[in-house]
Amino acid sequence: MKRIGLFLLCILQAYAVSTRIGDEVNIVGVRENYLTGYGIVVGLQGTGDGTTTKFTLLSIANMLKKMGIYIDPKDVKTKNAAAVIVTAKLPPFAKSGMVVDVTVSSIGDAKDIGNGVLIRTPLFGPDRKLYAFAQGPVSTGGGYTESNKGGKIQKNFTTTGVIPNGAIIERNLPYNFENQPDVTLTLKHPNFETAKNIVESINRTFGRDLAYAIDAATVKVRFPDIATDKVKFVSKILDLKIESASEPTIVIYERTGTVIMSGDIKLDTPVYISHGNIYVTVQKQKEVSQPPTLSGGETKVVPKITTKIEEENGRIFAIKEPTLKDLVKALNDLGISPRDLIAIIEAIKKSGKLHAKIVIM
């Protein structure tokens, strides 16, 4: 019987540290945008979509129709083509003529799209406008799939590939940075103290009240005047140093039994804890079933299943010091399992005695 699984406890003591403003914030309007399109990969060696994937056959027929070749979709029998979804990220300040990488993913029953060629595919943004065209040979990173009735061997994923620099941007983004009267910073981890420190650092550096906080997540910064070099100004802001303190956090990854505690975690003491466990063991053994003499029965091997239940008495212990060190020491001295540790931490949090954010993954 295996009672204790993998258990890893990490303690990270966090203090106020000096960090760049650029590491703590994003700039509104300066972000990536997702593009999506539907296309066809051709030139496959019999590893494309089968004849049961109707939308692929219809797409091929429509593509040929645009080229002046009229054919009934029912007459399309090829397995050398596959229907795919094409995705890409449009970078900030994207301009017409720039190129970006694209990811190509099969949506039919194709077995392998590697070494195929993506036919020109329009890529659309969330506003349904066309921003780029994608085309080119698909690479699956040397992946392959071989199978027969006896088994299957696979390396990497052969139904997803990439085309480096496979999309050409056709439309500029509508965001005009030069005409903006101010710049808005959004905190990656909203915090009133951090927002205050950002405002004070900017105003102190430039000797003027250019920055003000709207809330714990937003700081607005006015440009000093119209002739300001805005790129240089924003670059200088992002390079300024501030004091930043992380929020006390406990991260629990239940699948592996990993618990990470960081920050100055406080406890309202004293805390008294009683915790017990029930362990269930199920064993299966084979036994010979011998029929009575002259009964005409057959000797058979039958399984015998036994169930054993053990209940561990609850253990009561106290935590009298409001420090993370004492909490960890008390838990480790008991040799508790990961599930016990998770249950105890959650119970202390619900009781209002533990002052830290708990993140369960």
What is the number of strand segments? 22
Low-pLDDT windows of residues: 1-12
Which word captures the global form? flat
Secondary-structure content class: alpha+beta
Oligomer description = single chain
Helix content: 10-25%
Strand order of the largest sheet: 4-5-6-11-8-7
Strand content: 35-45%
Count of distinct structural domains: 3
Instruction: Give the H and E element order.
Output: EEHEEHEEEEEEEEHEEHEEEEEEHHEE
Helix segment count? 6
Q: Could you report the average pLDDT, rounded to the nearest whole number?
A: 79
Give the termini separation.
27 Å
Q: Strand count, sense and closure of the main sheet?
A: 6 strands, antiparallel, barrel
Radius of gyration: 32 Å
Please characterize this protein's 3D structure:
- This protein has 361 residues and is α+β, with helices and mostly antiparallel strands.
- The protein has three domains: 17-29 and 176-244, Alpha-Beta Complex (Aspartate Aminotransferase, domain 1); 33-169, no CATH class; 249-283 and 309-360, no CATH class.
- The chain has six helices and 22 strands.
- The strands form seven sheets. The protein has a six-stranded antiparallel barrel. A four-stranded mixed beta sheet has the order 1-17-16-22, with helices on one face.
- The chain is flat and about 105 Å long.
- The chain starts with 7 loop residues before the first strand and ends with a strand.
- Residues 1-12 have low confidence and may be disordered.
